[in-house]
Amino acid sequence: MFETLTKAPGDKILALMGEYAADSRPTKIDLGVGVYKDEKGVTPVMTSVRKAEERILSKEKTKTYLGIAGNKGYGNAVLDLVLADSVDRARVRIAQAPGGTGSLWVLMQLVNRARPGATVYVSDPTWANHNPIAINSGLKVATYPYFDAETRGVKFDQMLAALDQLGAGDVVLLHGCCHNPTGANLSDAQWDQVAASLVRTGALPFIDLAYLGFGDGIEADAYGTRKILSSVPEALIAFSGSKNFGLYRERVGAAILVARNGDEAEVTNSQLLNIIRGAYSQPPDHGAEIIRTILEDAALRSEWETELAQMRNRMISLRKKLADAIRERSNSTDFDFVADHRGMFSLLGLSNDAVEHLKAANGVYMTGDSRINVAGIPEDRVGDLADAFLGALR
Fold first, then answer.
1. Cis preceding linkage at 181, omega within 30
2. Which stretches make up the Aminotransferase class I/classII large domain (predicted)?
3. Cβ within 8 Å of residue 340, ≥6 positions away
4. Which residues, at least 6 apart from 248, have a Cβ–Cβ distance to it below 8 Å?
5. C-alpha count within 13 angstroms, C-beta hemisphere, residue 290
Protein backbone atom coordinates (compact mmCIF):
# COMPACT_ATOMS: atom_id res chain seq x y z
CA MET A 1 0.00 0.00 0.00
CA PHE A 2 2.56 2.57 1.08
CA GLU A 3 4.54 2.34 -2.17
CA THR A 4 1.91 4.68 -3.64
CA LEU A 5 3.02 7.53 -1.36
CA THR A 6 5.57 10.24 -2.07
CA LYS A 7 7.40 12.15 0.61
CA ALA A 8 5.38 15.03 2.06
CA PRO A 9 7.04 18.46 2.09
CA GLY A 10 8.85 19.19 5.33
CA ASP A 11 7.63 21.79 7.81
CA LYS A 12 9.68 24.94 7.32
CA ILE A 13 9.51 26.00 10.96
CA LEU A 14 10.73 22.60 12.16
CA ALA A 15 13.53 22.71 9.58
CA LEU A 16 14.52 26.16 10.83
CA MET A 17 14.57 24.85 14.40
CA GLY A 18 16.93 22.10 13.29
CA GLU A 19 19.26 24.55 11.58
CA TYR A 20 19.33 26.76 14.64
CA ALA A 21 20.07 23.82 16.96
CA ALA A 22 22.95 22.72 14.72
CA ASP A 23 24.52 26.20 14.66
CA SER A 24 27.43 26.23 17.14
CA ARG A 25 27.87 30.02 17.21
CA PRO A 26 27.26 31.36 20.74
CA THR A 27 25.98 34.64 19.29
CA LYS A 28 23.13 33.06 17.30
CA ILE A 29 19.64 34.55 17.74
CA ASP A 30 16.37 32.65 17.27
CA LEU A 31 13.61 34.91 15.96
CA GLY A 32 11.78 32.13 14.14
CA VAL A 33 9.89 29.81 16.47
CA GLY A 34 6.52 31.22 17.54
CA VAL A 35 6.67 30.80 21.30
CA TYR A 36 7.01 33.46 23.98
CA LYS A 37 10.46 33.68 25.56
CA ASP A 38 11.54 35.61 28.63
CA GLU A 39 14.73 37.64 29.05
CA LYS A 40 16.67 34.38 29.61
CA GLY A 41 15.41 32.90 26.34
CA VAL A 42 13.14 30.45 28.18
CA THR A 43 9.42 29.83 27.65
CA PRO A 44 8.46 30.04 31.31
CA VAL A 45 5.80 28.32 33.37
CA MET A 46 3.65 31.11 34.82
CA THR A 47 3.53 31.18 38.62
CA SER A 48 -0.28 31.29 38.43
CA VAL A 49 -0.18 28.12 36.31
CA ARG A 50 2.17 26.38 38.74
CA LYS A 51 -0.09 27.24 41.68
CA ALA A 52 -3.14 25.97 39.79
CA GLU A 53 -1.33 22.72 38.98
CA GLU A 54 -0.37 22.22 42.63
CA ARG A 55 -3.99 22.76 43.64
CA ILE A 56 -5.24 20.33 41.00
CA LEU A 57 -2.73 17.67 42.06
CA SER A 58 -3.73 17.93 45.71
CA LYS A 59 -7.47 17.71 45.01
CA GLU A 60 -7.79 15.47 41.95
CA LYS A 61 -9.74 12.28 42.65
CA THR A 62 -10.23 10.70 39.23
CA LYS A 63 -8.82 10.38 35.73
CA THR A 64 -12.08 9.32 34.11
CA TYR A 65 -13.28 10.70 30.79
CA LEU A 66 -14.53 14.28 30.51
CA GLY A 67 -17.18 13.80 27.84
CA ILE A 68 -17.09 14.90 24.23
CA ALA A 69 -17.46 18.64 24.94
CA GLY A 70 -14.69 18.56 27.53
CA ASN A 71 -14.32 20.41 30.81
CA LYS A 72 -17.59 22.33 31.28
CA GLY A 73 -16.17 24.72 33.87
CA TYR A 74 -13.38 25.58 31.44
CA GLY A 75 -15.89 26.17 28.68
CA ASN A 76 -17.97 28.58 30.77
CA ALA A 77 -14.85 30.43 31.96
CA VAL A 78 -13.56 30.83 28.40
CA LEU A 79 -16.91 32.15 27.21
CA ASP A 80 -16.87 34.75 29.99
CA LEU A 81 -13.31 35.72 29.05
CA VAL A 82 -13.88 35.94 25.30
CA LEU A 83 -17.50 37.02 24.89
CA ALA A 84 -18.37 38.98 28.05
CA ASP A 85 -21.95 40.18 27.37
CA SER A 86 -21.58 40.64 23.61
CA VAL A 87 -24.06 37.91 22.63
CA ASP A 88 -27.00 36.00 24.11
CA ARG A 89 -25.51 32.81 25.55
CA ALA A 90 -28.58 30.84 24.48
CA ARG A 91 -27.19 31.13 20.93
CA VAL A 92 -23.69 29.97 21.93
CA ARG A 93 -22.11 26.53 22.30
CA ILE A 94 -18.51 25.64 23.16
CA ALA A 95 -16.45 22.46 22.96
CA GLN A 96 -12.96 22.02 24.31
CA ALA A 97 -10.44 21.08 21.61
CA PRO A 98 -6.74 20.16 21.50
CA GLY A 99 -5.18 23.58 21.02
CA GLY A 100 -6.10 26.40 18.70
CA THR A 101 -5.17 24.18 15.77
CA GLY A 102 -7.60 21.49 16.90
CA SER A 103 -10.28 24.14 17.33
CA LEU A 104 -9.74 25.38 13.78
CA TRP A 105 -9.87 21.84 12.40
CA VAL A 106 -13.10 20.95 14.22
CA LEU A 107 -14.82 24.14 13.09
CA MET A 108 -13.69 23.80 9.49
CA GLN A 109 -15.06 20.26 9.45
CA LEU A 110 -18.31 21.75 10.73
CA VAL A 111 -18.34 24.34 7.93
CA ASN A 112 -17.88 21.61 5.34
CA ARG A 113 -20.81 19.65 6.77
CA ALA A 114 -23.02 22.73 6.64
CA ARG A 115 -21.83 23.93 3.23
CA PRO A 116 -19.71 21.30 1.43
CA GLY A 117 -16.84 22.81 -0.54
CA ALA A 118 -17.46 26.34 0.74
CA THR A 119 -14.76 28.94 0.20
CA VAL A 120 -12.80 30.24 3.16
CA TYR A 121 -11.29 33.68 2.56
CA VAL A 122 -8.04 34.22 4.46
CA SER A 123 -5.89 37.31 4.79
CA ASP A 124 -2.93 37.75 2.46
CA PRO A 125 -0.74 36.60 4.16
CA THR A 126 -2.08 34.41 6.93
CA TRP A 127 -0.81 31.79 9.39
CA ALA A 128 0.76 28.97 7.37
CA ASN A 129 -1.50 26.29 8.87
CA HIS A 130 -4.80 27.94 7.94
CA ASN A 131 -4.69 26.81 4.30
CA PRO A 132 -3.87 23.11 4.83
CA ILE A 133 -6.46 22.78 7.61
CA ALA A 134 -9.14 24.25 5.33
CA ILE A 135 -8.11 22.19 2.31
CA ASN A 136 -7.88 18.96 4.33
CA SER A 137 -11.39 19.70 5.59
CA GLY A 138 -12.71 19.76 2.03
CA LEU A 139 -12.98 23.53 1.74
CA LYS A 140 -11.70 25.90 -0.92
CA VAL A 141 -9.33 28.73 -0.02
CA ALA A 142 -9.12 32.24 -1.45
CA THR A 143 -7.51 35.42 -0.14
CA TYR A 144 -8.49 38.97 0.63
CA PRO A 145 -5.96 41.86 0.60
CA TYR A 146 -4.44 42.59 4.00
CA PHE A 147 -0.75 43.47 4.36
CA ASP A 148 0.81 46.45 2.64
CA ALA A 149 4.46 45.58 1.96
CA GLU A 150 5.38 49.25 1.57
CA THR A 151 3.80 50.73 4.70
CA ARG A 152 3.87 47.45 6.70
CA GLY A 153 0.31 48.29 7.70
CA VAL A 154 -3.11 47.02 6.66
CA LYS A 155 -4.49 47.61 3.16
CA PHE A 156 -7.80 48.34 4.75
CA ASP A 157 -9.61 50.00 1.84
CA GLN A 158 -8.75 47.06 -0.43
CA MET A 159 -9.62 44.59 2.31
CA LEU A 160 -13.03 46.12 2.90
CA ALA A 161 -13.77 46.32 -0.83
CA ALA A 162 -12.98 42.60 -1.17
CA LEU A 163 -15.13 41.64 1.81
CA ASP A 164 -18.02 43.66 0.40
CA GLN A 165 -18.01 41.39 -2.69
CA LEU A 166 -18.66 38.22 -0.66
CA GLY A 167 -22.02 36.67 0.01
CA ALA A 168 -23.94 34.21 2.14
CA GLY A 169 -22.17 30.86 2.12
CA ASP A 170 -18.72 32.45 2.04
CA VAL A 171 -16.52 32.24 5.13
CA VAL A 172 -14.15 35.03 6.23
CA LEU A 173 -11.30 33.99 8.48
CA LEU A 174 -10.24 36.92 10.66
CA HIS A 175 -7.35 37.18 13.13
CA GLY A 176 -9.03 38.39 16.32
CA CYS A 177 -5.90 40.29 17.39
CA CYS A 178 -2.10 40.14 17.02
CA HIS A 179 -2.10 39.17 13.34
CA ASN A 180 0.19 36.26 12.47
CA PRO A 181 2.53 36.66 10.63
CA THR A 182 2.44 40.41 10.05
CA GLY A 183 1.80 42.04 13.46
CA ALA A 184 -0.32 44.66 11.66
CA ASN A 185 -3.78 44.88 13.21
CA LEU A 186 -7.16 46.51 12.67
CA SER A 187 -8.19 49.53 14.69
CA ASP A 188 -11.49 49.55 16.57
CA ALA A 189 -13.00 51.77 13.87
CA GLN A 190 -11.89 49.32 11.19
CA TRP A 191 -13.39 46.41 13.12
CA ASP A 192 -16.66 48.37 13.15
CA GLN A 193 -16.54 48.61 9.35
CA VAL A 194 -15.73 44.90 8.96
CA ALA A 195 -18.71 44.04 11.16
CA ALA A 196 -20.96 46.27 9.06
CA SER A 197 -19.69 44.61 5.88
CA LEU A 198 -20.48 41.15 7.26
CA VAL A 199 -23.98 42.30 8.11
CA ARG A 200 -24.44 43.59 4.57
CA THR A 201 -23.13 40.49 2.80
CA GLY A 202 -24.20 37.68 5.12
CA ALA A 203 -20.75 36.08 4.93
CA LEU A 204 -19.84 33.97 7.96
CA PRO A 205 -17.10 35.35 10.24
CA PHE A 206 -14.62 32.76 11.50
CA ILE A 207 -12.33 34.32 14.11
CA ASP A 208 -8.98 32.82 15.05
CA LEU A 209 -8.33 34.12 18.57
CA ALA A 210 -4.90 32.73 19.40
CA TYR A 211 -3.29 35.69 21.19
CA LEU A 212 -5.91 37.29 23.43
CA GLY A 213 -4.10 39.64 25.84
CA PHE A 214 -0.81 39.69 23.91
CA GLY A 215 -1.56 42.92 22.03
CA ASP A 216 -2.93 45.80 24.11
CA GLY A 217 -4.72 43.91 26.90
CA ILE A 218 -7.59 41.45 27.22
CA GLU A 219 -10.41 43.94 26.82
CA ALA A 220 -8.74 45.86 23.99
CA ASP A 221 -7.81 42.67 22.16
CA ALA A 222 -11.34 41.27 22.48
CA TYR A 223 -12.95 44.35 20.91
CA GLY A 224 -13.05 43.03 17.34
CA THR A 225 -14.41 39.62 18.30
CA ARG A 226 -17.12 41.09 20.51
CA LYS A 227 -18.07 43.71 17.91
CA ILE A 228 -18.52 41.00 15.27
CA LEU A 229 -20.55 38.77 17.59
CA SER A 230 -22.83 41.60 18.67
CA SER A 231 -23.53 42.42 15.01
CA VAL A 232 -24.04 39.17 13.09
CA PRO A 233 -26.47 36.24 13.45
CA GLU A 234 -23.84 33.48 13.10
CA ALA A 235 -20.13 33.18 13.80
CA LEU A 236 -17.34 30.75 14.68
CA ILE A 237 -14.40 31.36 17.03
CA ALA A 238 -11.30 29.20 17.53
CA PHE A 239 -9.74 30.06 20.91
CA SER A 240 -6.26 29.06 22.06
CA GLY A 241 -4.80 29.12 25.57
CA SER A 242 -1.29 28.28 24.38
CA LYS A 243 0.19 31.77 24.37
CA ASN A 244 -1.69 33.75 26.99
CA PHE A 245 -1.43 30.96 29.59
CA GLY A 246 1.91 29.59 28.34
CA LEU A 247 0.33 26.15 27.91
CA TYR A 248 1.79 25.24 24.53
CA ARG A 249 2.39 21.54 25.17
CA GLU A 250 -0.90 21.05 27.02
CA ARG A 251 -2.79 21.70 23.75
CA VAL A 252 -5.80 23.51 25.16
CA GLY A 253 -8.24 25.37 22.94
CA ALA A 254 -11.96 25.80 22.37
CA ALA A 255 -14.31 25.68 19.40
CA ILE A 256 -17.08 28.25 19.85
CA LEU A 257 -20.16 28.56 17.66
CA VAL A 258 -22.82 31.26 17.61
CA ALA A 259 -26.10 30.42 15.87
CA ARG A 260 -29.18 32.46 15.00
CA ASN A 261 -31.16 31.05 17.93
CA GLY A 262 -31.01 28.43 20.64
CA ASP A 263 -32.63 25.69 18.57
CA GLU A 264 -30.13 26.09 15.72
CA ALA A 265 -27.30 26.26 18.23
CA GLU A 266 -28.38 22.90 19.66
CA VAL A 267 -28.61 21.24 16.25
CA THR A 268 -25.28 22.67 15.09
CA ASN A 269 -23.62 21.66 18.34
CA SER A 270 -24.81 18.08 17.86
CA GLN A 271 -22.90 18.02 14.57
CA LEU A 272 -19.85 19.58 16.20
CA LEU A 273 -19.81 16.92 18.91
CA ASN A 274 -20.33 14.20 16.30
CA ILE A 275 -17.22 15.42 14.47
CA ILE A 276 -15.20 15.34 17.69
CA ARG A 277 -16.45 11.84 18.57
CA GLY A 278 -15.31 10.57 15.17
CA ALA A 279 -11.86 12.12 15.53
CA TYR A 280 -10.19 12.26 18.96
CA SER A 281 -13.39 11.27 20.82
CA GLN A 282 -12.74 13.39 23.92
CA PRO A 283 -10.20 16.08 24.79
CA PRO A 284 -7.47 15.93 27.45
CA ASP A 285 -8.20 17.73 30.69
CA HIS A 286 -5.02 19.01 32.30
CA GLY A 287 -4.60 22.31 30.46
CA ALA A 288 -8.31 23.06 30.55
CA GLU A 289 -8.48 22.43 34.30
CA ILE A 290 -5.52 24.79 34.79
CA ILE A 291 -7.31 27.57 32.92
CA ARG A 292 -10.60 26.88 34.73
CA THR A 293 -8.85 26.99 38.10
CA ILE A 294 -7.16 30.30 37.29
CA LEU A 295 -10.18 32.05 35.81
CA GLU A 296 -12.55 30.99 38.59
CA ASP A 297 -10.26 32.07 41.43
CA ALA A 298 -9.99 35.86 41.96
CA ALA A 299 -6.46 35.78 43.37
CA LEU A 300 -5.08 33.43 40.71
CA ARG A 301 -6.79 35.37 37.95
CA SER A 302 -5.28 38.62 39.19
CA GLU A 303 -1.85 37.01 39.32
CA TRP A 304 -2.29 35.61 35.81
CA GLU A 305 -3.38 38.99 34.42
CA THR A 306 -0.30 40.60 36.01
CA GLU A 307 1.99 38.00 34.44
CA LEU A 308 0.26 38.37 31.09
CA ALA A 309 0.70 42.14 31.26
CA GLN A 310 4.40 41.68 32.02
CA MET A 311 4.85 39.51 28.92
CA ARG A 312 2.86 41.93 26.78
CA ASN A 313 4.72 45.00 28.02
CA ARG A 314 8.07 43.29 27.55
CA MET A 315 7.27 42.65 23.87
CA ILE A 316 6.07 46.23 23.38
CA SER A 317 9.31 47.47 24.98
CA LEU A 318 11.45 45.25 22.73
CA ARG A 319 9.59 46.55 19.68
CA LYS A 320 10.31 50.14 20.63
CA LYS A 321 13.96 49.45 21.42
CA LEU A 322 14.56 47.73 18.08
CA ALA A 323 12.78 50.47 16.11
CA ASP A 324 14.73 53.16 17.99
CA ALA A 325 18.05 51.38 17.45
CA ILE A 326 17.49 51.06 13.71
CA ARG A 327 16.39 54.69 13.43
CA GLU A 328 19.46 55.92 15.33
CA ARG A 329 21.79 53.95 13.08
CA SER A 330 20.10 54.64 9.75
CA ASN A 331 18.58 58.09 10.31
CA SER A 332 15.47 56.56 8.74
CA THR A 333 11.96 55.80 9.94
CA ASP A 334 11.63 52.78 7.64
CA PHE A 335 11.41 50.34 10.54
CA ASP A 336 9.26 52.40 12.89
CA PHE A 337 6.37 50.06 12.03
CA VAL A 338 7.93 47.45 14.33
CA ALA A 339 6.98 49.63 17.31
CA ASP A 340 3.44 50.06 16.00
CA HIS A 341 2.76 46.36 15.46
CA ARG A 342 1.37 44.22 18.27
CA GLY A 343 1.67 40.63 19.40
CA MET A 344 4.64 38.32 19.04
CA PHE A 345 5.27 38.86 15.35
CA SER A 346 6.27 41.44 12.79
CA LEU A 347 6.75 40.90 9.08
CA LEU A 348 9.86 42.89 8.17
CA GLY A 349 9.46 42.78 4.40
CA LEU A 350 13.02 41.59 3.77
CA SER A 351 13.98 39.65 0.66
CA ASN A 352 14.78 35.97 0.91
CA ASP A 353 18.40 36.84 0.08
CA ALA A 354 18.51 39.19 3.07
CA VAL A 355 17.00 36.50 5.31
CA GLU A 356 19.62 33.98 4.16
CA HIS A 357 22.40 36.55 4.63
CA LEU A 358 21.30 37.22 8.20
CA LYS A 359 21.37 33.50 8.94
CA ALA A 360 24.74 32.84 7.32
CA ALA A 361 26.60 35.98 8.36
CA ASN A 362 25.04 36.82 11.70
CA GLY A 363 23.38 33.66 12.99
CA VAL A 364 20.02 35.46 13.03
CA TYR A 365 17.24 32.99 12.29
CA MET A 366 13.77 33.93 11.04
CA THR A 367 11.22 32.39 8.67
CA GLY A 368 11.78 32.82 4.95
CA ASP A 369 9.11 35.52 4.64
CA SER A 370 11.07 37.61 7.23
CA ARG A 371 8.61 37.15 10.06
CA ILE A 372 10.30 37.70 13.40
CA ASN A 373 9.21 36.71 16.89
CA VAL A 374 9.97 39.86 18.87
CA ALA A 375 9.94 37.91 22.13
CA GLY A 376 13.12 36.22 20.90
CA ILE A 377 15.08 39.49 20.74
CA PRO A 378 17.88 39.47 23.35
CA GLU A 379 17.42 42.72 25.24
CA ASP A 380 21.16 43.24 25.70
CA ARG A 381 21.84 42.76 21.97
CA VAL A 382 19.23 44.99 20.35
CA GLY A 383 21.98 47.15 18.88
CA ASP A 384 23.73 44.13 17.36
CA LEU A 385 20.45 43.01 15.81
CA ALA A 386 19.81 46.48 14.37
CA ASP A 387 23.32 46.47 12.83
CA ALA A 388 22.69 43.02 11.35
CA PHE A 389 19.38 44.06 9.80
CA LEU A 390 20.88 47.16 8.22
CA GLY A 391 23.89 45.21 7.01
CA ALA A 392 21.64 42.72 5.24
CA LEU A 393 19.95 45.58 3.37
CA ARG A 394 23.14 47.09 1.99
1. yes
2. 27-388
3. 153
4. 35, 43, 242
5. 25
Asked if the peptide bond before residue 125 counts as cis, ω within 30 degrees of 0, the response is: yes
**What is residue 255's three-state secondary structure?**
strand
| DSSP β-ladder status, 204-209 and 171-175 | parallel
Separation between Cα atoms, residue 230 and residue 251, nearest integer Å: 29
Q: How many residues does the chain have?
A: 394
Alpha-carbon Rg for the chain in angstroms: 21
Classify 107 in phi/psi space as left (phi over 0), alpha (psi -120 to 50) or beta.
alpha
Q: pLDDT of the chain along its 394 residues, tens only?
A: 999 999 988 888 888 889 999 999 999 999 998 899 999 889 999 999 999 999 999 999 999 999 999 999 999 999 999 999 999 999 999 999 999 999 999 999 999 999 999 999 999 999 999 999 999 999 999 999 999 999 999 999 999 999 999 999 999 999 999 999 999 999 999 999 999 999 999 999 999 999 999 999 999 999 999 999 999 999 999 999 999 999 999 999 999 999 999 999 999 999 999 999 999 999 999 999 999 999 999 999 999 999 999 999 999 999 999 999 999 999 999 999 999 999 999 999 899 999 999 999 999 999 999 999 999 999 999 999 999 999 988 7
SS3 105: helix
Q: Which of 365, 366, 355 is nearest to 391 (CA)?
A: 355
CA–CA separation, 125 vs 167, rounded Å? 22
Task: Tell me the C-alpha distance between 211 and 208, whole Å.
Answer: 9
42's CB contacts (< 8 A; 6+ apart) are none
Distance CA 178, CA 184 (A): 7
Active-site positions read: 127, 208, 210, 243
> Domain 65-296 belongs to what topology?
Aspartate Aminotransferase; domain 2 (3.40.640)
Report field, pTM of the whole predicted structure over 0.85? yes
Helices (H), 285-297: 286-296
Instruction: Domain ranges for the chain, please list them.
Output: 12-46+301-393, 65-296
